[in-house]
């Protein structure tokens, strides 16, 4: 039996992701489980790591991809909550079990500080793995650890600012985090505003989400989309913003925000000609809106389990744009980099 795995040999781009084959398969020690992976999904983070653009240290010769789903095929001594045959995913930050994220746990991220999931077999700390929803396929479940959990943490991670029925959530774009945020918001009885530069993407997302409680703004046609969002809410503004764009979208986010609302800082994928926000504008925007600024760094095992329970209860299905074969990883990276996708890009692991 062999173990095929991809490794990032340097930071020169997608060509640096090389397939390796080993005759040795790791065995679990005490408190560990061995996972046979069936699928992985990609995130923007995976792309910029390969290009040397990620702002945090990366393990040398790392196995890429934080997100994977598979089955337990061996358990180490002392493991009682998981057994052979369980369908699981390892948590993004392996040491973030519950409570507030620590600096040490922040450095335990898969596909960065630790080897990730783009492989056939891997050994992980059992306490850092969660059972995936029985209603999902491996491909669907592989989309959850980063994008879905980030959206869940944004909407439910601050106890006195959790999403409530009837509130309004604005999500930027049609990538994984934003689409999951929209799905969770609708399931909670909230309303959603989706921004995108593509009317085709807007139409496709609405086919998945439905028309009820879903409003949209094409920001290429309406650059001042913050004002438009306020108009759509009768001048009140939105309660939650999943801010994935960064400095070039933050100014409009403050414009769209209701007094006392929350901006959940998630990413920096914003492109285009928007003007960057200044430090003084951030300070004044926060004060004048009495805003909660929430930095979201994925989520804990505890939150992962809570999210999976909600996915089961509400029968939420991840939106997968395209599935690539394990041997075609470079094409998967290139496709996601092109930003053609809606929802998630998945890689099926060879069996």
Automatic annotation (TrEMBL):
Source organism superkingdom: Eukaryota
Pfam families the UniProt entry points to: ADH_N (PF08240), ADH_zinc_N (PF00107)
Domain Enoyl reductase (ER): 12-347
InterPro entries: ADH-like_C (IPR013149), ADH-like_N (IPR013154), ER (IPR020843), GroES-like_sf (IPR011032), NAD(P)-bd_dom_sf (IPR036291), Zinc_ADH-like (IPR052711)
Gene Ontology MF term list: oxidoreductase activity
Classification via PANTHER family: PTHR45033, ZINC-TYPE ALCOHOL DEHYDROGENASE-LIKE PROTEIN C1773.06C
Protein known as: Enoyl reductase (ER) domain-containing protein
